[in-house]
Amino acid sequence: MDYSRVDREGFLFSSLPPSSRKGAVLALLLLLLLLPLSEESKHQIWTPGATMMMGCVKRVIKARIPCWICAFIRRTCETIIPGLPDDLALRCLAKISHGYHGLLECVSKKWKRAIRSMDYAHIKARERWCGDWLFVLGADSPALWHAYDPDADRWHPLPRMPGFTDDDELCRFSCVSVSNKFLVIGGCHISHSEKRCSETRSLMVFDPFKKQWKVAANMQTARTDFACAVISDKVYVAGGSNSNSPEGLATAEVYDPDADK
Amino acid sequence: MSTESKEILVGESSQAKPEKKTIVLMASDGDEFVVDVDDITNQSEMIRNLISDMGGTDGLQVPLLNVTAPVLAKLLELFNVSNKNDDDEEVTQKVKELMEAELNMMIDVLGAANYIEATSFFDLSCKVLADKFKGMSVEEVREFLNIECDFTEEELQQIHAENAWAFD
Question: Which residue has the higher pLDDT, A10 or A72?
Fold first, then answer.
C-alpha cells in the first residue's frame, strides 16, 4: 500500500507544472482520504471474489483518478503567470496601460478575468497607475466614446454610456475631467429610433480604473450649450439654455465629485 | 542541510573595509550567503525591520524558507548591480537579460524579491516584465509564458469586437 501511495504521489507531482503544487497538495489529501477507505473494505469483505473486484477497482482508480484530478487541478489552480503568485502577477500587469488591455484579455480566460477584476482596478487605483486618456466622441458612432492611450499609441472603445443605444446621440453637452474621473454633463439626448430629443439634467461619470460608467447626481436644471470648468476639484456649470428658457439661463451650479452633490 | 557555504560580498565597499558588519542569509536548501548589512538593508525592508527588531546584527542568521540558493545568488547579484549604480538603467538591463535567458529564474527572483520586501527592485522587475508584453502579439505572449489558449473561436471574436480599435 505504501508503495502505491508513493507511486501515485510521484505520478501526480511529476505530471504537474510547478505552478499547480498547491493543487497537488489538495489532491494528495483527497487520495489519503481514499486510501484508508479501500483498506478497510478489503478486510471486511475477505472473499477471493471480492479481493479480485477490489483489485480491479483499484487499478481503475489508479489509472483514472489521477488523470481527472490533474485536469481539474490544472483548470482551477492555473496561475496568471506560471510560477508567480497571482497577486504579484496582477501587480505586474497593473503596470500596463489601458490601450493594451484588449490585447491582454485575449491571452486566456484567466487573463481576461484578471484584467476585468476589481482587484486589478484596486491595484491600479492604489498605485495611481491611471495612464493618460484622451476621450473622443466620434460622428460615426455618436453615443460611443473612444479612448486613446498615448503610451500604447492605440485607440479602444469605452463601454456604452448608461441609457444609450446605437441609435441614440448626445449633443450640445459639456465634458470635463476631474480627480481621475471623466464627466459628461447635460446636453441633448437624441433618440433616432423614437424620433425624440430631450434636454437632460444628467451627469455621467466614467471611472478609468473600473472602466465603468456611473450615473451621478443630476443638475438642478437641464442645460445645453453651457459653460463648464473645474476649479479646485469642483465642477462649475453656468449659463446655457433649455426649452423653458430659450433666451438663455442666468444661473450657475457647482458639483462636488467627492460628495456626488 | 548542506555543509557547503558560499560567500558573496555585496558591494565593493565591504572588501575595502573588512570591519563592516555582515549578516548571514540562509537559502531554503541550507546554503549560507554572507552579505553586507548596509547593502541588504538598502534593498530589503523585511531585513531592515528584522535587524531593528533584534536590536543588532551580531551573528544574525536569516533563514529564507521560500528562496532556493540559485535564486538567492541571482537576487544578490542583481542587488549588487543596483547598489553600485545610482540610476536604474544598469540593473534594468541585467533583469532584461535574465528574463530573455531564463524566464523561470527571473520569475523566481521576482517572487523572492517580494518575499524579502525589496520593493523598489520588485517594481523595477515587474516593469521589465510588463514592458515585455507591450511589444508582443497575443500569440507571442502565450508562447512566451507557455499559456494555453482556452477560448473558443467565437469567444475570441467577441473580445476582438469589444476592443475593435485596439487591434488595428
Answer: A72
Confidence of residue A250 (pLDDT cuts 50, 70, 90): confident
Please name the amino acid found at residue A44: Q
Residue-wise pLDDT tens digits, A188-242: 888 887 778 888 888 999 888 877 888 888 888 888 889 998 998 889 999 888 8
Q: Does A181 touch chain B (CB under 8 A)?
A: no
Contact A85 B111 (CB under 8 A): yes
Residues from chain B contacting residue A16 (CB–CB below 8 Å): none
Considering only the beta carbons, identify the residue of A82, A108, A155 that sits closest to B149.
A108
Contacts of the segment B149-154: beta carbons below 8 A, 24+ positions apart: B149/A107, B149/A108, B150/A108, B150/A109, B150/A110, B151/A106, B151/A108, B151/A109
- Ranges of each domain in chain B: 5-153
Distance from CA of A83 to the nearest CA of B (A): 6
Judge: A157–B138 Cβ closer than 8 Å, yes or no. no
Q: Is the pTM of this model over 0.90?
A: no
Nearest to B104 among A83, A93, A107 (CB): A83
Taking domain A134-255, whether its CATH number is 2.120.10.80 is answered by yes
Higher pLDDT, A2 or B52: B52
Q: Which CATH class is domain B5-153?
A: alpha beta
Is B104's Cβ below 8 Å from some Cβ in A? yes
B153 CB within 8 Å of a chain A CB: no
Chain B's closest residue to A144, CA to CA, is B162
- Nearest-angstrom CA–CA distance, B144 and B164: 24
Per-domain boundaries in chain A: 2-77, 86-127, 134-255
What ipTM goes with this model?
A: 0.70
Cβ pairs A/B, distance under 8 A: 93
Using CA atoms, how far residue A25 sits from A13, A95, A142, B115, in Å, is: 9, 32, 54, 22
Q: What are the angstrom distances between the C-alpha of A32 and each of A5, A16, A25, A151, A261?
A: 8, 18, 10, 52, 60
pLDDT band with cut points at 50, 70 and 90 for residue A11: very low
